[in-house]
Amino acid sequence: ANILFASIDSVFRRAGEFCPWNVCIVDEAHRIPFADDKGKYQKFITESKKLNPKLRVIGFTATPFRMAGGDICHKDHILTFVSYEAGVQGLINDGFLCKLRSKVGETQPNLKGVKKSGGDYNMGHVSKRAGNIVDKAVAEALQIIMKEDRKSIIFFCADVDHCTKVSEALARMNFRAPIVTAKTPPEERDKIARQFKEGKIPGVCNVSVFTEGFNAKCVDCIVLLRPTLSPGLYSQMVGRGLRILAGKLDCLVLDFAGCIMEHGPIDCLGGLPTVMATCSECRESFSRATGACPACGWAIPKQEIARIEATERKKRMHGDKASKSPILSIPETHVVHAIFLARHKKEGKPDSLRVSYRCGALIFTEWVCLQHRGYGRLKAMEWLDRRFGTRDRIIPGQTEGIPRVDEILKDMFFPQRLKEWTKTITVIREGKERFKIIDYNRPVDNVTLTKDS
């Protein structure tokens, strides 16, 4: 056959039985291990490449990262780069996914001292802690579910014992939500899933069954009763409610396991960048975690640390109590007070221009790839054209074409000219503490954008 559909379990030992593949497409590609790991995908792809060294491997996934190792795309991995990426917020805006809302429950498990195994919480220990608050959490969740008139709810539980307690607690409150676990017979599992999709059952309680590949468009509420340190698992659980359906306005995520506070917005999952601070004495930019400027020794005042942390807490979308805060990141616009330029070096790559914007006590950074080729250079030209109307001869002594990094850094007035154009920047979260600049000069409440702003 020219095209073959198969599960990895059925073919990983049989690569040599087929004619050489030209393309291997893997769904849920986050399951592909890193290059130095062993596994079924590794075995099948390695054997297939012996038959066709030019085999192309393409992966589809909503979570292109793994808790152990980070991004799945790397030059040393089977998947080497991201060729196309669509963000959750963009897909919602374009009508491909439904809107999300979230409420963080007042009832939360005490996870202090809970053991970890395999990079995540030990579910046996979690089950005991979460089991102590089942009745209270279920009662709070049902109150919200009834008030919001939610019809199809998935409850995510820690283990079989915890799942049983949750289902029984729901039954005592006249809410039917049968149990589905890895031990549930396939016939019974299929029956429950079918009845749930048909609206005959209002809810299901599950343990790591409906986290991936389960497509029920009717789901309009997700109840997180199990904590996790895995951003991928968190995304998969919440993602069960993203499917669109006629008459479905949004999906409500109820968090009784600290997942939202642990991982942040679902469209910002990824790395853990360094939070930066700016020295009030010498303007050095440094990691806030150090507490003091490495250049001059200036220490961040305790009052300033308390103020910044209080501001960050206020900006978080999810409070300690149930709220209507969205589970998606929200753009923030800040007034720019100063701009700093520096050369950015990366081994094996041309130098780029690092542009840092100081907005009060916050620092936001972007990189302009003036000396790169292809897409990076195209974006750099657009960046210059937008600010100066041209990319030619914008600095004294500029050579032909787009200016080089060293030419810009020699122009002592370039930051000032850049500041005259840049009144505000609009940023959006790309991780717990990382931001991406998405726009410039949007208006800010109570701020008039004048030349001297």
Describe this structure as you would to a colleague.
By secondary structure, this protein is α/β, with parallel strands linked by helices. The chain folds into three domains: 8-71, no CATH class; 88-268, P-loop containing nucleotide triphosphate hydrolases (Rossmann fold); 332-440, no CATH class. It contains 13 helices and 20 strands. It has helices spanning 8-11, 40-51, 88-93, 123-131, 134-148, 160-172, 186-197, 231-239, 259-263, 302-315, 375-388, 405-410, 414-421, and strands at residues 23-27, 56-60, 65-66, 70-71, 99-104, 116-117, 120-121, 153-156, 179-180, 203-206, 221-224, 250-255, 276-278, 285-287, 332-335, 338-344, 352-359, 362-368, 424-429, 435-440. It has a six-stranded parallel sheet, with helices on both faces. It has a three-stranded antiparallel sheet with strand order 15-19-20, with no helix packed on it. Strand 17 (352-359) and strand 18 (362-368) form a beta hairpin. Helix 4 (123-131) packs parallel to helix 6 and helix 5 packs across helix 6 (160-172). The radius of gyration is 26 Å and the shape is globular. Residues 271-275 and 313-325 have low confidence and may be disordered. One of its GO terms (cellular component) is cytosol. Residues 1-82 form the Helicase ATP-binding domain. InterPro entries: Helicase/UvrB_N, Helicase_ATP-bd, Helicase_C-like, Helicase_Restrict-Modif_Enz, P-loop_NTPase.
